[in-house]
Backbone:
């Protein structure tokens, strides 16, 4: 028995030893994997659809063959929030990778204020990076933080009104609406007529779900009434008559005029809106420029029937388009800054911008690409877009903008769902935003 | 293992010495597990607790602020809303899951030809990952082309319903999706307990002319009480932490009415406000801790009483 007991304990000991050794060995292997990357390589973090990642792969190859600098593509998810989460984790722990990454314009303030972005001014002065041709307004509004250049636009976006040319003509309208009341009138008339054939038809689709896109839509409606964020040195105002009018109008489009479906505030994000419009189920949609090439695709039911125009405004206001788009920046913790600057220069170069426009339909951040013959031939609508892009309204460039946005998303969404009056919601949002400003606006 | 054998073969002193080495060996074997638990459970919990006392945002220098975050949490209407939602979610979903789980367990305990097949069918929802099942329910509740609205229109009821569009609707939708998914879990735990009930007791009850309901309340229920307590504990803690279902299905909407505490904490982490998110997580942790202690005490008391 004792002999047997010893044998069992010896067996146990052996097992434990094997487990321990294999654990140590795996740790060692993992450590090796992280430590040695062979020849040093830049890491570029990009996310998006598979077609976008493929385009980046081929761009990187080209960059490497031109400069001899190896680049590894860090493939991020498509979801914007997950992309941000991945970058925040890496940067907050001061990792040297990724060296270069793409950022949504809405997070630039947070990233810059966190001191994660390497200023690019020296590289511009040394003429490594050329910024002359980039949209001046976009760069000034979004890429400068406390006077320093911390990022550069890769592509620009702005909200647009898409309309069905054929339906407007059929119902006797010769131009898209210039004001919101006109839009309501047209939408109601066409919707009434079309619904006799197609019960799923809606007048106007826009992004009303509880997410960042709702804030963009709201800024456009509010801005066209002369409202929006009113930001002072230590105050933030949201509960203004213009904002109240705009927010009530957004609620009314769903519940009073009934030109926007009731799932606007539960389901409608960019793709839901685009797909419904593309199936022929809407007269108007508010969307980003990415929808244009998709509507013009060969298998699209609305191919050739779509027009784009600036968004409508209220009687005494003017059309406002929310600035969107993605920007490229360099990590302050990068261990290959000179090479990283070369990669950024490559991304904002004429050739790359042209390629991204041709292959992915991205709107170039450089004004000169808009007059390129090949680009104009492939995408004639870009000429119209350039006009819109000269007058984009940025979201507030505050380091804690995303916190304020989160509050506003919730409050606006509750107005759209009919839980709160617009006045109550704006007042509540203002109080919470003011609190955020007090907490995070002072060191 | 070989204890009775040792007791008469080894002298007392030697036995004590061997006991000591056994304890030492046992400690040695347990040590790695303790180290792993410490590294992956204790360190994060304590780290989160410490962090909740700091203003820890990426945009500003880290600063000690004591209980400020907890005060702000309490003052925040949206946090109270998330507490309210989470509590109501537990109150609504756990009893339903328990009741349905019990019914399923009793049905599955009956000897029929198709019992194996039935058990497999009941288990399917539990095997589906939560995010996937949330997506499936989203397709059911969808306004256009959703299965629920399709059913309505086929029943001849006109007008689409925006199921997730009202507070009550979204709440009920989340509860229903959760009940569908986790009832099998409760059923399986209870079934295991049911099968351990000696069949003789049922024969005895039949001899005493107890009817089905009497048998259930006087024989079955007391004997599966440990299982009920275990299922309650697991389900309550899981419901308290509800995240994936609301994240995918409602995103906390409409207007923040289905924002759970864990979703609330997550949204602050995402925005780089780690200290505040930590404070919300600590509140969640404390709630889970209190509930666990409560159930463990309750379970012991009941087990002794039975």
Residues:
């Amino acid at each position: 028995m004792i002999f047997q007991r010893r044998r069992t304990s010896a067996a146990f000991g052996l097992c434990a030893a094997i487990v321990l050794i294999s654990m140590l060995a795996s740790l060692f292997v993992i450590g090796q994997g992280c430590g040695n990357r062979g020849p040093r390589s830049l890491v570029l973090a990009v996310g998006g659809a598979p077609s976008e990642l493929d385009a980046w792969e081929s761009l990187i190859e080209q960059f490497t063959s031109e400069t001899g600098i190896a680049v590894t593509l860090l493939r991020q998810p498509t979801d914007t929030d997950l992309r941000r989460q991945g970058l925040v984790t890496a940067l907050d722990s001061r990792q040297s990778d990724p060296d270069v990454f793409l950022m949504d314009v809405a997070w630039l303030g947070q990233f810059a204020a966190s001191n994660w972005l390497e200023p690019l001014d020296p590289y511009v002065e040394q003429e490594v990076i050329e910024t002359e041709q980039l949209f001046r307004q976009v760069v000034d509004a979004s890429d400068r933080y406390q006077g320093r250049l911390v990022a550069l636009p890769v592509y620009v976006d702005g909200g647009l009104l898409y309309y069905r040319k054929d339906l407007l003509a059929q119902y006797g309208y010769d131009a898209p609406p210039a004001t919101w009341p006109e839009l309501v009138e047209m939408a109601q008339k066409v919707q009434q007529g079309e619904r006799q054939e197609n019960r799923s038809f809606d007048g106007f689709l826009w992004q009303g779900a509880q997410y960042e896109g709702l804030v963009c839509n709201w800024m456009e409606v509010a801005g066209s009434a002369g409202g929006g964020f009113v930001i002072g040195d230590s105050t933030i105002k949201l509960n203004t008559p213009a904002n109240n009018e705009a927010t009530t109008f957004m609620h009314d489009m769903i519940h009073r005029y009934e030109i926007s479906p009731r799932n606007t505030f539960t389901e409608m994000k960019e793709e839901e809106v685009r797909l419904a419009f593309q199936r022929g189920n809407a007269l108007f949609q508010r969307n980003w420029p990415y929808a244009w090439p998709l509507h013009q695709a060969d298998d699209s039911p609305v191919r050739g029937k779509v027009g784009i125009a600036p968004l409508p405004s209220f009687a005494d206001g003017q059309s406002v388009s929310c600035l969107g788009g993605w920007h490229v920046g360099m990590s302050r913790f990068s261990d290959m800054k000179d090479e990283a600057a070369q990669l950024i220069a490559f991304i904002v170069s004429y050739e790359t911008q042209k390629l991204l426009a041709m292959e992915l339909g991205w709107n170039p951040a450089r004004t000169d690409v808009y007059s390129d013959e090949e680009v104009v031939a492939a995408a004639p609508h870009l000429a119209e877009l350039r006009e819109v892009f000269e007058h984009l309204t940025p979201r507030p460039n505050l380091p804690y903008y995303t916190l304020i946005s989160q509050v506003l998303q919730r409050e606006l969404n509750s107005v759209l769902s009919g839980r709160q009056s617009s006045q109550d919601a704006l007042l509540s949002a203002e109080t919470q935003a003011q609190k955020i400003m007090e907490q995070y606006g002072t060191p | 293992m070989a204890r009775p054998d040792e007791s008469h073969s080894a002298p007392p002193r030697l036995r004590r010495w061997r006991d000591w080495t056994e304890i030492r060996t046992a400690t040695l074997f347990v040590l790695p597990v303790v180290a792993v638990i410490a590294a992956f459970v204790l360190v994060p919990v304590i780290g989160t607790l410490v962090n909740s006392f700091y203003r820890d945002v990426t945009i500003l220098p880290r600063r000690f602020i004591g209980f400020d975050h907890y005060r702000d949490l309490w003052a925040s209407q949206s946090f109270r809303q998330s507490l309210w939602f989470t509590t109501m979610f537990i109150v609504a979903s756990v009893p339903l899951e328990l009741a349905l789980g019990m019914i399923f367990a009793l049905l599955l305990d009956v000897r029929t030809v198709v019992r194996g097949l039935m058990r497999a069918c009941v288990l399917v929802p539990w095997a589906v990952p939560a995010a996937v099942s949330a997506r499936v329910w989203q397709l059911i509740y969808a306004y256009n082309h959703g299965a629920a609205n399709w059913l309505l229109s086929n029943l001849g009821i006109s007008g689409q319903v925006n199921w997730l569009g009202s507070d009550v609707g979204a709440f009920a939708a989340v509860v229903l999706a959760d009940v569908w998914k986790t009832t099998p879990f409760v059923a399986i735990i209870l079934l295991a307990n049911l099968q351990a009930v000696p069949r003789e007791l049922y024969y005895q009850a039949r001899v005493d002319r107890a009817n089905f309901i009497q048998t259930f309340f006087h024989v079955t229920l007391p004997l599966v009480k440990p299982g009920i307590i275990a299922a309650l504990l697991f389900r309550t803690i899981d419901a308290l932490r509800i995240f994936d279902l609301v994240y995918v299905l409602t995103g906390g909407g409409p207007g923040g009415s289905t924002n759970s505490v864990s979703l609330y904490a997550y949204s602050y982490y995402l925005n780089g406000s780690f200290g505040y998110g930590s404070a919300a997580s600590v509140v969640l942790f404390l709630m889970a801790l209190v509930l666990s202690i409560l159930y463990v005490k309750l379970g012991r008391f009941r087990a002794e009483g039975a």
